[in-house]
Design goal:
Elements (H helix, E strand, L loop, with lengths): L16 H13 L42 H18 L4 E5 L6 E7 L9 E7 L11 E4 L31 H10 L12 H9 L1 H17 L13 E3 L4 E3 L10
Antiparallel strand pairs: 1-2, 2-3, 3-4, 5-6
Helix pairs in contact: 4-5
């Protein structure tokens, strides 16, 4: 189980023994010994007051990778709620699993059953901003660049901002990003492409476009058995007998 989803109690620090003895000595010599009220320690002379950031956008990032204005527990709750929504949607042909190391990164794979990209199996990673659910939309990057007008031919990143120009809290969800990533392979959009060559061929030479798509599908298929680029026990792998995830949760059966 991803430790991210467990409410950690490790943050509750036990009072050092020396400090316990010191405080106990103070209480014994205090005339208010019988009082049940707790006494707060005195404020150090060089103490600096802690101020709340003016806005989430200007606050600093905490050491655990979460946004300082929200805190880890709020972020955990938000991402767990998003993952639950993905499970409920049962997106056809889509598998996804949060990383063991960080729930801000999800591993996924899309199966395409018909159309120009038929038999395509495309592995990807979803990178979620650390100030989620505010800020920009999550990024979706394919492990290998797919020949597609909306996929960057170098980085493999899908143009998600085309569909989510402004990410709206409580309105947009990660399952919608996954659905969009699946839909782009069935409904080709060539406006303002990230891969101009693919867009031009789709508009002017569909046969050559199909040929390059077939080559792209074959290339991705030839690397399905490669070890994940990121060492993570929940990274999605493909068995030679059946596609599966190194995890306990299967979200949807392909196609």
């Amino acid at each position: 189980m991803n430790p991210f989803w467990s409410m950690s109690t490790g943050s509750v620090r036990k009072r050092p023994e020396a400090e316990e003895k010191t405080l106990s000595g103070e209480l014994r010599t205090s005339p208010l010994r019988a009082s049940t009220k707790k006494q707060l320690p005195s404020i150090p002379k060089n103490a600096v007051p802690i101020t709340k950031p003016a806005s989430p956008a200007t606050s600093s990032q905490s050491t655990n990778g979460t946004h300082a204005s929200y805190g880890p527990f709020y972020l955990e709750y938000s991402l767990l709620a998003e993952f639950t929504l993905v499970v409920k949607q049962k997106l056809p042909g889509v598998y996804v699993q949060p990383s063991y190391q960080s729930a801000l990164m999800w591993f996924g794979v899309i199966f395409i059953r018909h159309g120009l990209y038929q038999d395509g199996v495309f592995k990807f990673t979803v990178n979620i901003p650390d100030n989620y659910p505010d800020g920009d939309c999550p990024r979706l990057v394919f492990d290998l660049p797919v020949f597609h007008p909306l996929v960057d031919p170098v980085s493999g990143e899908l143009d998600v901002k085309r569909a989510f120009a402004k990410w709206r809290r409580n309105h947009n969800h990660i399952w919608q990003v996954l659905m969009y990533a699946r839909r782009v392979f069935y409904k080709i959009d060539t406006t303002s492409p990230l891969n101009p060559e693919a867009a031009v061929l789709y508009e002017k030479d569909i046969q050559l476009f199909k040929s390059k798509v077939v080559d792209s599908v074959k290339l991705c298929s030839s690397h399905l058995f490669d070890q994940p680029k990121i060492e993570d026990p929940y990274a999605i792998i493909r068995s030679r007998k059946i596609s599966t995830a190194k995890a306990h949760t299967c979200l949807a059966c392909p196609g």
